[in-house]
Design goal:
There is one protein chain. The protein is an alpha/beta fold. The chain has one domain: Rossmann fold. The protein has 2 helices and 7 strands, in the order ββββαβαββ. The strands form 2 sheets. A 4-stranded parallel sheet has the order 6-5-4-7. The chain is globular, with a radius of gyration of 16 Å.
Length: 139
């Protein structure tokens, strides 16, 4: 992905940022109370490290282009959360947070639950569905 095109705006009491998430898409307004979510394994970090799928499930190296996207959102004041099944085990949350800090993302919130303020979610395993269409985008 790399850095995103972002224009910060404070218009009529509505602060946020216009974010071009994909080069072929129109910018999306992200109000300050919304956030973007990024899956960890396979999205922010590699999964081809030795032992990744075996206990103790070590975290992989970062994917630099995805880190650049997160950092560009953070620089514009857009909140970012890491979503991971690892958060099902509370003791893994500080491990993931330490990984994020080590790779320049700061101490991000780590969760395994979506919320109403999630405006965009990046995940290597998701299949995109046409909004209100009941079919995949690729159909």
């Amino acid at each position: 992905m790399g850095p995103l095109q972002i224009r910060v705006e404070n218009n009529n009491g509505h602060s946020g940022a216009w974010v071009t998430f994909e080069p072929t898409e129109s910018p999306v307004f992200v109000p300050r109370h919304n956030r973007a979510g990024f899956d960890l394994d396979g999205t922010l970090s590699r999964t081809d490290n030795p032992g990744h799928f075996e206990p103790p499930y070590p975290l992989g190296d970062p994917l630099p282009r995805m880190l650049e996207a997160v950092k560009s959102l953070q620089a514009a004041g857009v909140a970012v959360k890491i979503f991971s099944a690892r958060a099902c085990e509370p003791e893994m949350i500080p491990v993931v947070q330490a990984w994020a800090e080590k790779h320049g993302l700061g101490r991000l919130e780590v969760t395994n639950q979506k919320d109403y303020n999630l405006i965009r979610f990046y995940d290597d395993r998701a299949i995109q569905i046409v909004h209100n269409g009941g079919k995949t985008v690729r159909m």
